[in-house]
Amino acid sequence: MFIRAKQVTIYSCFLLVFCMIAHGDIDSLLAPMKDRSSYSNDSYGKSKLKDTRNQKGYVFQNQIIERLQSIILSRFQKSGDLTLRPDRNWKPIPIENDQWSVRLINVTPNKIASRMVVHFRLNSGSQLVGNWQIPVQAELWVEAFQLARPIKRGESIQRGDVNVVTVNALKHQNPLILATEDIEKLEIYQTINMDYPLYWKNVRATPMIRKGQIVDVLAREGSLRISTKGLAMQDGSKGELITIRNIKSKKDFQAQVINENSAKVFF
């Protein structure tokens, strides 16, 4: 009986010690949770920040296309809005430096056309990212003149005779007269339909001298000056050479148009 009581006492002591140890273990497990959290935030945060700094950026297709549109317009000295559409889309291009640039190498054909192959280079900072050649479809939108009413050949154009329309210049083989031109200095040279864009081949500069007009013909050589009357045998704008007939001798000669009433002869 004494032995059993002793065993019970020993067992009770052992259980008490175990509980104390267990309680201490729980405290020790809970305490480091806070420490680990603090440590984890410290080290992982720095690591994550470092990764963020090293993470690559990207250049997207639309960004490169916008740069190329501006560069191509400047290279070929064209006005208007150029739109480039790649035949296929490409994935964003990874770069190491957000200070990127595009350099146009060449365009085939060597002009702005409805279909082109654009060869360009992409740099990230001072580092070459790569060279690309991309086939594109192009549109060049400009504001141009079109007739608002029928005008006969030889008739001068007034501002009210035309409308301003936006057209894709690449769909027209002939050069268009852009809305930035002084249309009132031009006249119709070739008859065209209404509601159709005006081409340069359809007009000419309004002549200063008309065929059949009597003009003053001036000639000068050194201190010698000669003035006579002549009959204009053709229309002529300022600076143009036209044929003039001497009224007395009936001989024809070339003279340069100076103004509305005069032409100059060169010896």
Short description:
25% of the residues lie in helices and 37% in strands. The chain contains two helices and 14 strands; from the N terminus they run αβαβββββββββββββ. The strands form four sheets. Strands 2, 4, 5, 6 and 7 form a five-stranded antiparallel sheet that branches. A five-stranded mixed barrel has the order 10-11-12-13-14. A two-stranded antiparallel ribbon has the order 1-3.
Write the layout of secondary structure elements.
Layout (H helix, E strand, L loop, with lengths): L1 H53 L2 E3 L1 H15 L5 E6 L6 E3 L4 E9 L6 E10 L2 E21 L14 E7 L17 E3 L14 E3 L8 E8 L2 E9 L8 E6 L5 E6 L4 E4 L2
Parallel strand pairs: 10-14
Antiparallel strand pairs: 1-3, 2-6, 4-5, 5-6, 6-7, 8-9, 10-11, 11-12, 12-13, 13-14
Number of strands: 14
The overall average pLDDT, rounded, is: 81
* Beta-strand fraction estimate: 35-45%
Q: Largest sheet, described in full?
A: 5 strands, antiparallel
Compute the CA-based radius of gyration: 43 Å
Count of distinct structural domains: 3
Which overall shape is indicated by the principal axes computed on the Cα atoms? elongated
The helix/strand class is alpha+beta
What helical percentage do the residues reach?
A: 25-40%
| SSE pattern, N- to C-terminal | HEHEEEEEEEEEEEEE
Unreliable spans: 1-55
Q: How far is it from the N-terminal to the C-terminal residue, by CA?
A: 155 Å
